Amino acid sequence: KRLMPLLAGMVLLLSACGRADLSTLKPQGPVAEEQFGLMKLTITIMVIVVLVVFAIAGYVIIRYRRRPGDKSIPVQVEGNHKLEIIWTVIPIVLLIIIGIPTVNSVFGLAKDYTKDPNAVQINVTAHQYWWEFEYPKLGVKTAQELVIPEGTIISVEGKTADVLHSFWIPSLAGKMDTNPGGNVNTMYFKADHTGVFLGKCAELCGPSHSLMDFKVKVVDKASFDRWVAAMKAPVAPPQDQEVADVLNKQCLSCHAIGASGAAFPNLMGIGGHQTIAGILVNTDQAQYANEGTVEENLKKWIEDPQKVKPGTLMPKVDLTDKQIDGIAKYLAGLKLDY
Ligand code: CUA
User: Fold this and answer.
1) So what's the ipTM on this one?
2) Which site in 79, 134, 159, 254 is 20 to 30 Å from 71, CA atoms measured?
3) Ligand 1 atom 1, closest CA
């Protein structure tokens, strides 16, 4: 009976492994494939070691067990140079076999593509508990949803605005720590085909660490160019004057819509995002418990951010239901065509 929850948990874990949008076991690009190759090499060697050690241990336990009536003390051995050399050299050789390709990959994958004109450069800044994505060469800044072109090198520079986080897209690449103290880490990755992939924070960073998700939307190159243009196009303010006033006073004092530069998530195109706050899934993706329309999720978020994401800097703003409805409706309408 006690095994049941454990088994159920394992089945859940394994079913998550089968999802191509978040599994390291189903690589969706060359970097993830290389990392998966390293995992396979390491696991193969570890399995062989475990099998050999268990086989020897099992053999010794059975072959040299105490037999009934046998009271004699076995031969006492204190050291055997030949054996000791063997069991020191074998692990060293195995570690070298694992180490050389691993070190090669680690340095290879940290290659800095920022000078490459064909690479898309993205500056990732981690915040408690959201992700900021800046495209310095394109003059675009967005949050929580990384849009990238397929088959293109994405060159990432990662830093943090507060504590230690780790940038991780399981099916595309990972992980890269974002360190406090001005340290910038670099990595690159590439997505083989279009699709939506899940990104996560992989370093314990506070009470909402597990909710610090983001999405990666891989689109074809023409769509990516259209997205960049749409991100920079002007946006009409809300028609309702009260909503426009509240938006300016309460929302745009921290957020920006379109123009890059605000310290908090850019709301441009948020009506077309997969999630609100990275965690309230907008589409009717049934595997998540908190699905709803963009507008419903925006309302849920604005009404009580702390309830959705404990510890978030987004305050609960004193708004009437009508004002929340108006803002949610306006923001849900900020959809980009690309
Ligand atoms: Cu950020 Cu965990």
Assistant:
1) 0.98
2) 79
3) 165
